[in-house]
Amino acid sequence: MIPAKVYEQTIRGFFAPITPYLDDEKVSEIMINSFDRIYVERAGLIEGTDAAFANEEELFAAIRNLAQYVGRHFDSDNPVLEARFPDGSRVEAIMPPAAPEGPAVAIRRFSKNTLTIDRLVSYNSMTREAAETLQALVAGKQNIVVAGGTASGKTSMLNAMSGLIPKHERIVTIEDARELQLQQPHVVPLEAQTADAKGRGRVSIRDLFKATLRMRPDRIIVGEIRGGEALDLIQSLTSGHGGGMTTVHASHSLDTLNRLETMAMMSDVEMPLYALRCQVASAVNFVVHVSRLADGSRCVTQITEVRGFDPKEGYELVDIFRRDYVGRNNDGTIISEFGPTGELPSCHEYLSRLGHRLPNSLYDKVKAAS
What we know:
Rossmann fold; 2 domains; nine-stranded mixed β-sheet; 27% strand
């Protein structure tokens, strides 16, 4: 067996044309459209580079070496590769004919510095009172879905929120490809596995979910919901496993619940739509929506409570915090204000009884509005 250190050195050698960007802390994404067309994202904005592989074969060799490192196949029978570099950077690669202009690769890099809620406040991604509200919700074991578009910062937000979980709790994480960097000491990370060349050894997210329920978790955190495992998550959150967290690709809070519905229907369990919607509304307590704005900045745009489902009105959603947009500065940066809406979470008395009081400013806003 080849030692991991040797593999790491080999991989860096194969990916030599892009190593300056792999080492650049300001680069969050490297996009290889073809062997000689490479782009990077810095501070939320995409720019072209002069980097290039010698030819398509050199790029193929680099991807196959990475596939070997993670124990997966990248060939005509397996044309899509989900992998990660030794430093944890996520890699998605697609080969021809699915990628007609040659292998296409996207590399998502993660900061080596642990992102915390306090850092998000210092970056103006949210306010201190919003951070204190999230702290109370997490400590009170409310179920939270982090939603947003591609590259909006969902995983980073989930990582930061994990730092609010009490340190004595046992956390089990489930992911397709390991990305979460939880800050707590008692974490059991689980990762799905693809089948080998003979179709053996596949372990799906749903398989891990079923196993997790018997591993005595205090909390279950799923890196991202993509399919039928949504129903397993919903049912676990409504059966005593509180304080769960996950991420979902969605453009706003209502779309988050609609997507969870759709993905739950991908499972092999048939359920009346009304019953499913009631379960979704019961399972998800709050949606934290994050966005990447036009100026490249990433921020929290909504903290929304899910208060139930009505067959006539649909999901009852109430914004607790909301970002309002004012305009732009001369340098193009977006001016916005993020603050409480004057609504208190319906669980505020329950949280208070547990010793998790919400910020006084939320109560003041309610009094001012009444």
